[in-house]
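Pasting as-is:
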Amino acid sequence: MASSSTPIEDTIRQKITTALQPSTLKIYNDSHLHAHHKAMEDSTSSETHFRVIITSDAFQSKMQPARHRLVYGLLKEEMAREGGIHALQLRTMTPEEEKRRKEQEAPAENAK
């Protein structure tokens, strides 16, 4: 089996899917936007900065900090590893929150 060109992204997807069974999971690799930063000058990894949008019932009755801690806990090994995740931006929602967000964004999109 060929090795993946995105092993960290694949791991993020697998761990979040297994633990949270999200109805929405979008992963954006923004590493190229940060490659010039001083902290990244010795890094050879092309998978250091991610934006992740997760919608899951697992977030019901949890405040944002608890949701984020849950995701950080899932990815602690990848965040601790040399050449691993350097920055992780999260948007965590319940299905109801995602529905409300889409309803609020729809009138703004239609006004354009």
